[in-house]
Amino acid sequence: RLWSPGLLSQLAVEMSKQRQCEAAEEQRAVSAGDDAARALDAARAARHDDAVAALRQLHSIPALSLSRSQCTLLFIACVRLSVSPLTPDTGHLITKTVRYLATALSLSPLDTLLDNGQRAEALLVASLSLTLGLFLVDPSYGHSTMLRPLWPTR
């Protein structure tokens, strides 16, 4: 016999654990999407000058020392700047902030996150980049998920 009741029971337990993990990851992704929607609403209500001031102030804190609420504030400020007319200086500030925020959240490149099954984190990286409109897919990087900034870094 290739199977036994014990083996089937163990397989059912493992499948149940896998389903629970997948459900938890989907819930985290949904929650991240809800947070982003709230951040966008708050950002639209903020003033442009306040957003610039918040970004400049938060850049003085080492990225890995930022709290989650400070990361949220950075994201809100970036979105606020992105919904107003962009200048090269504003674009550079947002590009710098997205990189800083990715460091603060210890986010890896998209390919690495997807390879490791970290879909919620990959969703955050992609939404930061694409929602803010600062990055384009660049096939010359060799991967369709590698993104490059529109503005050069200084």
Your description of this structure?
With 154 residues, the chain is mainly α. It has helices at residues 5-45, 48-58, 68-82, 88-104, 110-115, 119-131; strands at 135-137, 147-149. Strands 1-2 form a two-stranded antiparallel sheet.
Name some characteristics of this structure:
single chain; 154 residues; 6 helices; disordered C terminus; mainly alpha; 67% helix
Q: Strand count, sense and closure of the main sheet?
A: 2 strands, antiparallel
Percent helix, as a range, is: 55-70%
| Total of helices | 6
Q: How are helices and strands ordered from N to C? A: HHHHHHEE
Runs with pLDDT <50, length 5+? 133-154
Using the alpha-carbon principal axes, give the shape.
elongated
Strand content: under 5%
**How many beta-strand runs?**
2
Report the C-alpha radius of gyration, rounded.
20 Å
Number of domains: 1
Distance between the termini: 68 Å
Strand order of the largest sheet: 1-2
Characterize this entry briefly.
With 154 residues, the protein is mainly alpha-helical. The protein contains six helices and two strands, in the order ααααααββ.
